[in-house]
Structures are given as structure tokens and as C-alpha cells.
Amino acid sequence: MNELITLNNGVRIPAIGLGVFQSAPEETVGAVETALKAGYRHIDTAAGYGNEREVGEGLRRSGVDPADVVIETKVWVSDYGFDETLHAFEKSAAKLGVSQIDLLILHQPMPQHFERTVAAYRALERLLDDGRVRAIGVSNFMPRHLAALREQTTVIPALNQVELHPYYTQDAVQRANAEHGILTQSWSPIGGITFYPGWGDDRRSVMDDDTIARISAVHEKTPAQVMLRWHLQQGRSVIPKSTNPVRIAQNIDVFDFDLSAAELADIDALDRGVRGGPDPDEVDPSTWGLEIPEA
Ligand code: A2P
Asked: Is pTM beyond 0.90 here?
């Protein structure tokens, strides 16, 4: 039903998790409950999404043993710093209703305040040492950020979650991750960022791509399923977001077909080299003004 991927510290996580970015709090409980009942055992959230409490509630309502579910969440930049990040763990754990977090990662680098990014990561190392988290990692780190982090910290991130879909394949990031044993985890794996309303008008939805449509027809699978298969066959973890029960089920029903090497290459060739999300180097997230409330 789901493949497991072994992280560089031996912890195993399901390759497919449910994403809840932009899932409204009132929809999140149902989406998480539906996903767990459909066989998902991995949920990806973030303090900055404002729905950790609802993820915890969905987990409890599902009746699935929490010990069997990997919960991944992210520390937001306003909580970077050693003590601040230790406290961010407490906030997230309390909202999620868990005493241990499976995967705790930094939401993005703060290139303009890298010393705070490093201090935050050192707090993750401490939490790992203390058994409060099972694995630690990063998100939206470019190779130069990974290199700078490596110089000042000890634990290699277990994963790096980055924007990655057929229109933005981030080859350099994938190579840097692989070189250091860091799992590449794709956000917007089915290209939601290419069609989310309000994220720019001049975009083409990868969901409507002709090449993906051709491959979908061959396998009698949907474009989303073809894209997810492409990630899995290339060794990436994925966290497709949906609040729709039919699509939630569809997005995990991807273990009964294989793309050929030629089909994988055709999808690779769709890369346009243009990100849909914010460039971590161009935005100073400390000015975004998002504060994470206490639990
Ligand atoms: P919805 O929540 O209504 O299903 P991504 O994870 O790549 O960012 O994509 C998320 C977007 O894709 C959301 O808008 C989600 O909407 C939509 N979506 C999720 N699963 C599917 C699917 N199987 N087919 C089409 N659209 C999907």
C-alpha cells in the first residue's frame, strides 16, 4: 500500500505522506482522518500552516495507533534561535498532542540571519539527542545553504523538502542531497504550485501537460498518479495535498504500475527551471510577520 524509505539515521518513513499546506483548519481534521483510514501513515504539516492542532485531532479521530504514524512538522523562522526552537518543539508537540515528534525540520533557511538558522538546527540536534524527535531535517535549502549548515553542525539532515514537480526538478538540489545521504522530499509533487489560485497569473498547470496526459492514457492512471509514480521511481518522498476523499485515495493508489525509463526521461525533460514558490534567497522571511502562537 505504501513504500517505506529508510532515512540516513535508520528511521523508516512511508514514501507518501498527506500534505496539509493550505488545508483550512476546519478541513484538516477530516482530511487527516480520511487519509489515515485510506492507508496513509505519514502526515506533513508545519507550525506556519496553523493547523497542527487539527492534524492531531484527525489522528485521534482516525483510531489509528499514533505509534504507526509518522508526523512531520516544521519550525517557522520566527522561532529560530537555540532556545526559541526548543520552545517551538514544545508548542508543536502540544498542539499535535504527542510527546515525541517523528520528523522535525526547519521550514527554510534564513540566509540573511544564517546564525539563527544554525542555532535552530543545533536545537534540533539537541532534541534528537534527547529522544524528543526521531529525525531532523530541513526544507527549501539550496546546496549552498546545505554546505554552510554542514560546516557548523554535526548531524546531516535526514531530508530536505523542496519544491519539486515536472516543471521544476531542481537537479542541483537533488544531486547535493544524494551526495550527502539526504532524502529529497518533494513539496507540490503534483505541481499544485503551478495552479494554486492567487500564486501568479502567467502560469501553466502541469496537471494539463500533454506529455503527462499521454503517459496517463497509456497506464490508465490520472496525471497526479503518473507524477507521483515518477517521484517514487526516482527515490523521492512525496507529500501530495488534498482535502478531497476521492483524490486522497487516488494519490496513494500508485503501487500497481511502473513507468518505463523512457517515460521517466520524458517527464524529466519537462523541467522549465522556474520555481513557483518564493526564492529562499530573495525573501527575508523574518519580515513576513507570521508569529506562531503558544499551544
Ligand atoms: P484538493 O485539495 O481540492 O484535492 P500539491 O500537493 O502538488 O501542491 O497539489 C495540491 C493541489 O492539487 C490542491 O489544489 C489539490 O486540491 C489538488 N489535487 C490533489 N490531488 C489531486 C489529484 N489526484 N488530481 C487533481 N488534483 C489534485
From this structure: yes
101 sits in which H/E element: strand 101-106
- Atom number in ligand 1 closest to CA 241: 6
Cell of 60: 485521534
Task: Answer whether 161 contacts ligand 1 (Cβ < 6 A).
Answer: no
Report the C-alpha gap between 295 and 290 in whole angstroms. Answer: 15
The Å distance, Cα 223 to ligand 1 centre, comes to 11
**DSSP E strand stretches across 189-265:** 237-238
DSSP state of 2: -
In the chain, pLDDT over 70 holds for what percent of residues?
97
Grid cell listed for 260: 518505463
* 139/148 Cα distance (integer angstroms): 14
- Which residue's CA is the closest to the ligand 1 atom numbered 14? 192
Whether 196 sits among the annotated catalytic residues: the reply is no
Q: Which residues pair with 71 in a beta bridge?
A: 43
Q: Which residue's entry shows cell 537533488? A: 174
Mean of the per-residue pLDDT values of the chain: 95
- Listed residue (182, 208, 187) closest to 276, CA to CA: 187
User: What domains lie within the chain, and their CATH numbers?
Assistant: 4-276 (3.20.20.100)
Enumerate long-range contacts of 52-56, CB under 8 Å, 24 or more apart. 52/92, 52/95, 52/96, 53/25, 53/95, 53/96, 53/97, 54/25, 54/26, 54/28, 54/29, 55/20, 55/28, 55/96, 56/95, 56/96, 56/97, 56/98
By the 8 A CB rule, do 32 and 20 touch? Answer: yes
Our measurement of the distance from residue 285's CA atom to the centroid of its chain's CA atoms, rounded to an integer in Å, reads: 18
- CA-only gyration radius of the chain, Å: 18
**Residues contacting residue 107 through CB under 8 Å, at least 6 positions apart:** 46, 47, 48, 74, 75, 76, 77, 139, 140
pLDDT at 286: 64
